[in-house]
Please model this.
Amino acid sequence: MVDGDTVRDATKALDILPSYRHPLPGFDVLVANLEAIRGRIDAATRESPPIALTDVTLLSPIANPGKLIAAPVNYQRHLEEARGSAELHHGNQVAAIRRAGLFLKATSSLTGAGQGIALRTLDRRSDHEVELAFVIGQRADRVARSDALDYVAGYCIGLDITIRGPEERSLRKSPDGYSVLGPWLVTADEIPNPGALDLRLSVNGQVRQQSNTSDLILGVGELIEYASSFYTLYPGDVVFTGTPEGVGPIQPGDTITACIEKIGTMQVNVRAA
Ligand code: MN
Model:
C-alpha cells in the first residue's frame, strides 16, 4: 500500500485468498478479491514500518492478467501524426479505431516501473507511448457503456513500447518489458471521471507528449462496451486506452518520466537487452 512517499507491506491482507489447484483460474486472483482485501489493508499494515518508495523496486501492480488489450490510434491528433509519417505507418494503412478495432499484447510483456525497459532491437526505431491504462474488476460480458465504469477496479499509467515497422502490432509491441504498468494501482473510487485527466511524458526532461483523456476518441466506458462485445473481460484484464500525439524514439540510457493526473508519476529507465 502506497502512502505518500512511503510504502507499507500489506501481504497479510492476502490471507483470505482461496488457494487454487490446477487448472488455475484465467483471471488475476488479487483483483478478483480486491474489495475484501481492501477491507483488511488497514489492519494488515498497522504493524508494517513505512519504507521509502525510493528504496523499493516497483513491479507491475497486476501480477497475472488474462489479457492485455490495447487501443490503436484512439486520439485524433495521433491518427493524423501516424498517417503523415512514413516512419510511423511503414506503408500500413492507419485506420481510426472503430475500423481498426483493438489488439492484444502478450501478457509476458508486462513489467513494472522499477524494472525498466530493455530494448531488443537497437537497429530499429522503438517509441514511447504514454496511455491511461485501466484494470477490469469483475467479469464483463456485453456491458453497456452506461454501466461500464462499475466494472473498473482501478487505473494505472501505461507505456505501450512499440517497435516501428511492417509487422503486426501484436508482435512489435510484445517483447518482454514492452508493456509498462505503474507506478501503482489507484482504485476506481479515487477517479470518478477518467475522461478528464492530464497526461504527460518526457524523455530526459524534455516533454514529448502532453494531452488530456478528454481527447480520447473512445473513452473508458466505450472501450469496455466495445471490447466486451467481442470477448468476456475478467478481473485483472488490463486495457491500454491509446496514446496521444508526440510519440518518439527511445534509446538505452534514456529516462522516461510519465505522469497522469490523480494517478502519479513514474520514472522508467531504458537500457539495452
Ligand atoms: Mn499504444
Remarks:
- The longest strand covers residues 152-160.
